[in-house]
């Protein structure tokens, strides 16, 4: 391991419940959908615009409408989650250890910069993260490997030398497609939902796991 790439939501912070609620409000209450919570959860990967297309079909919204809905969803999420904004247990210590050892770190996320800045600045952890690859920086979302490959390139590290932290099956698949191994935070999905994915080193609830501590 020469570099670390973090997904953000559900991986560094345990916030996916708040994203789910914000999307439910947008999709069902604002847009008149009738989606179950499980349907919303299973479609919460990739860019916000892609989620809207998956749920309502191609051409249902204009680009401007999707931009507006995306930003509104994130504003609702941030307002609800702000009182709970904190890193997963053990992550502050993990970041400091990696920083002290000179291990470069990146965020590779389908979040928009508005949300990534919310976390980096709200928790004052920007000094630890050398590279950020957001939804705005890629053409194709996870499970395509572009997000992670671009992060590795910007870190000047070979993909095989990067360790990815993820929380969703599509993210683990993206890491595999990039030729990277992954550790999965079980904040959002059960280990059984990752069946058939062979690049996963460990499932863990947070960063206090002995396996993670021994990475250094």
In order across it, which strands form the biggest sheet? 3-2-1-4-5-6
β-sheet strand percentage: 5-15%
Number of strands: 6
Radius of gyration: 17 Å
Q: How would you name the oligomeric state of the polypeptide chains in this document? A: single chain
Helix coverage percent of residues?
40-55%
Low-confidence stretches: none
**SS-based class:** alpha/beta
Label the overall shape.
globular
Number of helices: 9
Distance between the termini: 9 Å
Average the pLDDT over all residues and give the rounded result.
96
Order of helices and strands: EHHHHHEHEHEHEEH
Biggest pleated-sheet summary = 6 strands, parallel
SSE blueprint:
Layout: E1 3-6, H1 16-30, H2 37-42, H3 48-56, H4 63-81, H5 91-100, E2 105-108, H6 113-122, E3 131-133, H7 146-155, E4 162-166, H8 169-177, E5 181-185, E6 200-204, H9 210-213
Parallel strand pairs: 1-2, 1-4, 2-3, 4-5, 5-6
Helix pairs in contact: 1-4
């Amino acid at each position: 391991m020469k570099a670390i790439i973090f997904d953000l939501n559900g991986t560094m912070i345990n916030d996916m419940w708040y994203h789910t609620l914000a999307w439910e409000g947008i999709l069902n209450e604002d847009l008149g959908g009738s989606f179950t919570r499980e349907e919303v959860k299973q479609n919460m990967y990739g860019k916000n615009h892609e989620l809207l297309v998956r749920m309502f079909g191609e051409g249902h919204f204009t680009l401007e409408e999707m931009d507006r809905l995306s930003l509104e969803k994130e504003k609702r999420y941030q307002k609800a989650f702000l009182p709970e904004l904190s890193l997963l247990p053990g992550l502050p210590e993990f970041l400091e250890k990696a920083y002290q050892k000179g291990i470069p770190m990146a965020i590779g996320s389908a979040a928009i910069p508005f949300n990534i800045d919310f976390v980096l600045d709200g928790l004052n952890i920007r000094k630890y993260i050398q590279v950020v690859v957001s939804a705005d920086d890629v053409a194709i979302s996870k499970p395509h490997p572009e997000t992670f490959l671009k992060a590795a390139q910007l870190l000047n590290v070979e993909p095989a030398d990067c360790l990815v932290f993820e929380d969703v099956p599509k993210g683990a698949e993206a890491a595999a497609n990039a030729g990277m191994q992954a550790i999965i935070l079980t904040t959002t999905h059960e280990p059984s939902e990752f069946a058939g994915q062979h690049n996963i080193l460990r499932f863990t609830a947070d960063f206090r796991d002995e396996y993670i501590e021994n990475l250094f």
